[in-house]
Amino acid sequence: MQFPDAMMHENIWFDRPKYEEEREHYELFLTNNLSSKLAETHCKESKTTLNAVESKKATSGSLLSSEIAKARDSIKQSLAETGSSSISSLESENKAMQKTITELVAKVAALESRVTKLEQAAHGTTTETAAEKVQKAKKDDDDIDLFGSEGSGDEEEDEAEKKRKEELLAKYNAKKASKPALIAKSSILIDVKPWDDETDMALMEQKVRSIEMDGLLWGASKLIPLAYGIKKLQILCVVEDDKVGTDILEEEITKFDDLVQSVDIASFNKI
């Protein structure tokens, strides 16, 4: 701050508060001027920036609109080319299909006519054959001599035919008799239960196998635990159905009543 020269040379400054106030007013003035300048500068810069942004937006908008217009034109052109090619291909396919259908219709018609001719021919042949059969049957009926008016030559032929049939029948019977007859057999699994755990199972099996019959063949056997140390004898046999039955086997085994408590048929299968 600059002061007048007269006041600067004074030794005592009596009006200092006044000058301090004036100094503050001056500083405030300078501050207001600076703020206004800064505000004006900022407004100018904002306007410049806004104008630049608006110009850029306009430029980009024009570019975008031109790109969109170009894209629309290319899409229209491609659609037009694709549509024309698709239509032409569809027309060619339609013509080929119509041609194929026409050929198929002609082939089907020819096939139907051929089948009709074949059916007519077959029907005519069948009818003719039936008529021939009827005429032949009538002729055979007419040729039959109910009163034996034919000569002895036919009788000799009948005797020879009869003799030939008898020979054939004899050969058949001999062949049938020489063929071995099929024997029906069954496989039977028998459970033989003892009285208690002190029964001699080996002796029981020996007694069971001692049963002999025509058509009976004993097979494998094993001991199966039941309960409380008691075991049962399970034995397999093969029998001829016409000679040996299950009732006979059970009856024969239960005869050893000192060893055998009961007999059950575990399984029965035809062979």
Automatic annotation (TrEMBL):
Quote the protein name from its UniProt record.
Elongation factor 1-delta
Q: Which gene encodes it?
A: EEF1D
Please give an example of a GO cellular component term from this record. Answer: cytosol
Coiled-coil-forming residues are: none
Give the record's family classification: Belongs to the EF-1-beta/EF-1-delta family.
Q: Does the keyword Protein biosynthesis apply?
A: yes
Q: Domain (Translation elongation factor EF1B beta/delta subunit guanine nucleotide exchange): give its ranges.
A: 185-271
Pfam families from the entry? EF1_GNE
GO molecular function ontology, one term from the record = translation elongation factor activity
Q: Which InterPro entries match?
A: eEF-1beta-like_sf, EF-1_beta_acid_region_euk, EF1B_bsu/dsu, EF1B_bsu/dsu_GNE, Transl_elong_EF1B/ribsomal_bS6, Transl_elong_EF1B_B/D_CS
Transmembrane intervals: none
* Every Elongation factor 1 beta central acidic region eukaryote domain range: 146-176
Specify the species. Answer: Hydra vulgaris (Hydra)
Keyword check for Protein biosynthesis, yes or no.
yes
Q: List where Basic and acidic residues composition bias occurs.
A: 130-141
The record ties this protein, via PANTHER family, to: EF-HAND AND COILED-COIL DOMAIN-CONTAINING FAMILY MEMBER, ELONGATION FACTOR 1-DELTA
Which intervals carry biased composition (Low complexity)?
Answer: 119-129
